[in-house]
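Input set for joint prediction.
Command: fold jointly, output tokens.
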Amino acid sequence: MRKYSVFAVAREAMRGHKGWEAQWASPEPRKEYDVVIVGAGGHGLGAAYYLAKEHGITNVAVIEKGWLGGGNTGRNTTIIRSNYLYDESMDIYEHSLKLWEGLSQDLNYNVMYSPRGVMMLSHNVHDKQSFQRHVHANRLHGIDNEWLTPEQAKAYCPPLDISATARYPINGAALQRRGGTARHDAVAWGYARAASDRGVHVIQNCEVKGIRRGQDGAVTGVETSKGFIGAKKIGVSASGHNSVIMAMADVKLPLHSVPLQALVSEPMKPIFPCVVMSNSVHAYISQSDKGELVIGAGTDQYNSYSQTGGLQIITHTLDAICELFPMFRRVKMMRQWGGITDNTPDRSAIQGVTPVPNLFVNCGWGTGGFKATPGSAHLFAYLIARGEPHKLAAGLTLDRFRTGRLIDEAAAAAVAH
Amino acid sequence: MLLIYCPYCEEERSELEFRHGGDAHIARPANIADITDEAFQDYFFLRDNPKGLIFERWRHIHGCGRFFNAARDTVSDRFFASYKAGEPKPDLPGVAPASEKTVETYEATEGNAQ
Amino acid sequence: MSGANRIAGQGRLTPARTARFTFDGVSYEALAGDTVASALIANGVHLVGRSFKYHRPRGILSAGAEEPNALVDVARDAARRQPNVRATVQEVFDGMKVESQNRWPSLSFDIGGINDFFSPFFAAGFYYKTFMWPKAAWEKLYEPFIRRAAGLGVAPTEADPDHYASRYAYCDVLVVGAGVAGLSAALAAAEAGARVILCDEQPEAGGALHFDTSVTIDGKPGYDWAQATAARLAAMENVTVLSRTTAFGYYNHNFVGLAERVTDHLARPDRKLPRERLWQVRAKRVILATGSIERHMVFANNDRPGIMLASAARTYLNHFGVAVGRKVGVYTANDSAYEAAFDLKRAGVTVAAIVDSRDKPGEAVLAEARKLGIEVLTGHSVVNTKGHRRVSSMSVARNGGGAARWIAVDALLMSAGWTPSVHLFSQSRGKVAYDAASGRFLPGTYAQDCLSVGSCNGTDGLQATIEEALAAGELMARATGNEGGAKVELSGENAFEWSGGMAGAGEGAGVDTTVKAFVDFQHDVCAKDIRLAVREGMHSIEHIKRFTTTGMATDQGKLSNIHGLAIASEVLNREIPKIGLTTFRAPYTPVTFGTLISHSRGELFDPARKTPMHAWEEAHGAVFEDVGNWKRAWYYPRAGETMHDAVNRECRTVREAAGVFDASTLGKIEVVGPDAATFLNLMYTNAWDTLKPGRCRYGIMLREDGFVYDDGVVGRLAEDRFHVTTTTGGAPRVMHHMEDYLQTEFPHLKVWLTSTTEQWAVIAVQGPKAREIIAPLVEGIDLSNEAFPHMSVREGKICGVPTRLFRMSFTGEAGYEVNVPADYGQAVLEAIWARAEPLGACAYGTETMHVLRAEKGYIIVGQDTDGTVTPYDAGVGWAVSKKKTDFVGIRGLKRPDLVKEGRKQLVGLLTKDPTVVLEEGAQIVADPNQPKPMTMLGHVTSSYWSENCGRSIALALVAGGQARMGQTLYVPMPDRTIAVEVSDMVFIDKEGGRLNG
Amino acid sequence: MADTALRLPPLGLRHGGSAAARVTPAAPATRLSLRAGPEALDALSAAFGLTLPTRPKGSALANGRHALWLGPDEWLLIDENEADLMAVAAGASALHSATDISHRNTAILVSGPAAAGAIASACPLDLGNAIFPVGAAARTVLGKIEIVLFRSGEEDYRVECWRSFAPYAFGLLSEGAEDAGL
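tokens >
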């Protein structure tokens, strides 16, 4: 594979960019693979890449019913952070953050990971108690997260209104400086290119219609719109559609799928330096490299596989954004969209074995899946290769809903992912 | 924003007046104290999350206050029926139950990009 | 003179009505009704902006909402400044300040223009391939540079002083678009008696009739017919006509968002007027008459100022009376552009040539061109242009590679045909279908109750449009139960039927990878970029879009989508429908946040709930804190006191004398009915049938999974009536939770729930002198310990008004909670205060309440517990009935992990140094010297300086806490490690004697 | 014995709106949340001196006493003469639940030709004459709060809300009234 570099770009510039090759191959499926991964999002493609790179398993196909990166990978607001509360969450998100830090170099693909800082605003005593609990837990776990006074928060994010007369005045903020954003499409494309280069087949426009199992109950392959594809192992990582895929193997999961909406403003010159989240008023916002304000809205209340949602969800978020940043009332919304997230009862992901032999699942990332991409992919590859979870993902197993060992970040902190 | 028919108010009202209540027809076991951990997990956590026809609960919380059930398509968000709590699932002629064997085509949810 | 290019006798504006505005500091005159674009062209200004990436000089391309180039910054004053305004839509008002964007130091000399020179390095997606070395440089160097280069306008920096309005509206038929089709449909529906809303984004009705002067309807010139029809509709009682109103989003169940621009065209708007108004329309039926948008031609350097859509030039001439040039070239692939040439020629403008890429244009337009003496070059293409700040000539060559010749022009009009505006249809989740014959995507399968009519439906021809629209209007009216009115009939005539059109790169786009033939103007996406994307493996149109950013600019691809698709189709050698369209997303055109949020700002952003005694508290110096939506008195500082001083004084005073406290925000639910006790047995862990009327009990409520959900004191007023209290924040969800179980799991129970949170003002009077304070005010209740012991409730009167008087305590002192009907709260508090103050009592706030209850080890659900704590963990396992066979949570509570050894349990913590106050949220470890990640045993949930104990106290959730009594643990802080001892949770009056005071 | 405490209603003497839609606080009234099954309706109707409505959005009026249908077993009773409704309810022997909410709720009157428009600025209910005629009542939302809306005349509406939400409701209706009156 041709290495990407400034020199390569310069060389191509001189000859009309005629020399670039396809970033990934578009092969016809083989009869059988060692591993079939369902879902070519960041998690699935990344898992394939790490299977090839770290476990030497290259006879792998990632199958995708649409276009790769077209699910939640390409629809989210790209926030990256690891300052979660519980050990299980801190472990996996910090593992992910460390991989983010070197991902462009590892993939030879600029994913534009930008550690511009993620700041969570505290508006009342309860917020402060909760955020300080995070700050302390993070520090003792070895994760950066610091408490800022309102003045320090304003210095870090000048557009912030910290006047005491605001409806929800700001009494401090928690800041993770290593948190930030990345370019979502580049993550999918970078993994696809790097995986394809190592021999992985990325098969787009190939819809899974069934999961075939042998007499021992173990999986033998998938029925797809391109015919039967044999598989010794299957990993399912299909974000909002995990319930549907897993039902094909008669596995029921504690998931519900709801549309999560987001929007961008028209592009403007740099005005907003970091990522700001406010749980009390339900808003998060950053500015993209193109200059658009990227704003995450809430989920609709009902199960839905439609990638649209109600206008009231958007307006509710904008209420809060404009209350925090009254200057933005004259800014215009340019595009709104939705993605389908699959959510667990404790808002933490499930990654692990299933009751079906050789069928592995990676689901329930809810609204927090993007930031987990490299970490989740890396550990999912380990799970598929070894048949048992890596210790960093050992807490994310399915049995916790039976035993009650929940990882309830939401209940503990009421912090939106 | 949905327009939801409330079977008690006998008219369609804005979603703003309603709160979603999860899956319908999941009865709390009468002997709940005695069921197994697995049965409790089934009752409290595991859900079909169907793509297509779903039977779900709504509460007209800012209206008549009543819980009721509805049948809706989770792909088109179209309602097929609303009925009072306690009534059985209605017959829905012509409506296929959601099934993993008949996954919607990609275009149905995703516009027309291929 | 309102501009040298204004042609006397042309257009519909009134020459006598002028307005002055500035563009980049230069003052110009405009006519009332001008857009910024028409006024600039009238004044000979063609260079108005710079493109996003290459900073290419750009002019005005269109005359409508699809404009990608002419984006300007418009200001009324410093705070009323709006970036990224389309000059083609914005009407000029007197005193308006317009600035160009994305250029430095000036529009005509823009340093960023160097990007155009280096553009070979900035091919699509180049940034994915570079800027990776050295690693740190991305954040420090490359990204800031990219960010500064990108972006268009400058964001507002002051709070927006304008206000916005909103309106929910219902109708039988919503008609979007007031062109021929929309007006006809609205008329038919309205005459049939339907409730109709008709909206159009332009100031006046007419749509294409603004430029198409060859149309007559019912014998009138088309534009005049449109105005008359709009006026007729507006006069009808069942019709609402909204101009300057864009239907921006089509949501579920025929819910359509409209944005009405109310004052942005006015020089001195009435301050009462909102700037914009959001309409949230729920329509039984929707008729989409959204028309179509002319496409540009894709050829080399097709972006120079002065190159514009043919229909736009016609609009500027026929509506605004402005000639876009004096020697005009036309480059087209369909007949409609000929009419622009005819109109200009008739107005005295020289038409250099009509270059038609087709071999056989329509006969009628050819004949007319001949008659007017206009040279037509069929089978030719424009292959290049010259001119820096304005086009100066076009290079024309016969198709197939003939020799090119340069023709001098000062404007070049182009048309590749018309793209139906199916945006709203697509947003409604209808599926478009590709019509190969006409090369258009048209409405295919409908998902909602709507119909498309006219050119957005691919209907060509005036009379066909009228008939289709009339039929649709009537059908939709009938379908919504309207039976009135006579059938509407209309007839129209037009000079020419249009045919032709093409999509994709023209001859002049070349296959050369250096040619800049723009597909997406704003984002500088050229035909070559789309080819590159395909070469790099981007085969889905969504990949192509995201890789090249075509269609992602502020115009959202209104001009570029079809061209991009056609080029991809050609390179991939796949038919257009096999490649598909990208998804259309709302909004149709950008909508200000202010409009979307309308009233929700300041005090109307989120209700701030105040108790009935709020004014009294304010007058007595209270500082308030936010608890949920409530404003609660936090502490009452006296002159010179810090918060710490005030809280210490309040804490001491309550235990030494007494204190009064506003507890009104606690949730209250009246549970009434013969099965009330049975119901509470199911909802709480405790047993309620044993509670006698007149007595109270502390209750714990669980979720089904066994975790603590809420708590509160419940008083039994009668056999069949309970007064339940909940936490302040928990009131609504507890009510919902109880209703859920009552209605759906236990519907057989005869019991009803009513929220009474706000019926009662609650004044807690706590401390040794509590009884002395209230006794003289109370009637009908024996306050003695024997008659009215701790945890009792009585009904009687206080200060002459009814009260529910609770003998209870959240402080550990003897005390009362006086409930009175809310409107009496302040007066009763005043009466109590009049007695309390002389007795040395104080008013105290929530902070003191927190300290006092912590001294007694009383928990606060939500602070000392989170959603992972069982009653046993929280030290209130005694409240879980062992006898009951059912209550919500009984099974969840028995799950393996909830009964496991070593769970986190609530305990007391005493710092070894009593003066050190722990930080709430601080983490606890056994070994402070272990490496990170440390094993954390738990965290501090509550921590205070206790003036009454003379030391700090804390509560904490600690793994295996009960078994660690007396152990030393550590709280590592950034600057030091604090040693603590695990203790009992009760720090004061362990026997509880003070309660009976 | 202390003086009898004075009543201090939440909205005081505020006024707002526009000429076309006046917004004013209603006078104090007694209110009851009445809950009962169908078998108790006759007895309760007799006790209250009006026929409790049984149709959605229905209401009944007798001598300044309104009964508004809120749900299939729920009515809001409002007595503008401040009669003791709890005492009346206590006199009915049929099984029911009566809870005094006189002070929980407060009311705002919106009247004038633009009254419906003022309310529609924040209320998603269809207020068309055919669907919300004079006498119609419904619990619904106004902006971010819950209200009970009652149409007492062609151009007269009563907005009932909880007392702590009243300033918000009043502000919202006043803004809506200004805009609707333009």
